[in-house]
Input
Amino acid sequence: MKTSQTDKLKPNIDPEHVTEIAKDIILRFKLPSEDLSRVVDMILRMVANSNTNATQFAESMNWPSASALGISVEEASAVVGVLSNAGIRGSLRTEALGTALSSLYRPTAQALETLDRLGISPFINGEFVGAAGLIRQLEVSFQGLDQAQRQTAIATIFGTEAATEINVLIGNGADEIEKYTKEIKAV
Output
């Protein structure tokens, strides 16, 4: 597959492997097949600009709840990039994050109380606000809380399994996710 980015391939990147990864991502995010070249370019950009390789990126993008929540392929890739740059790679980590985000559809009574108390609304008119939108709300609502209060809120809302990922995303901020997403969309 020849795309605008294939001329810039690192010597150790197999174009056929990247194309297969792109096909899987297209299926997972229910994108039209015409987007293959764009998704290949997105993968190559992520490999070039973040702490991941094509195989790790493919594994990290294997969180089915991202598309189910309405997270775009670009924003999901941005989240993977932010996590990869923090040394968090692989499907187990993004699956934990996906499970935590999916739990927002049916929060526990304690999680619902914490969300209400902090003024966090993961859904507006039934639509998920997106990863950057949720992280922005967490950033704002956590102002004035001490570390123990923040960690308790994260564990209560999302569970402890994805606490590391949520902390990394908050630490990098919604602006970083949005910046990455815009860069990926510019492909």
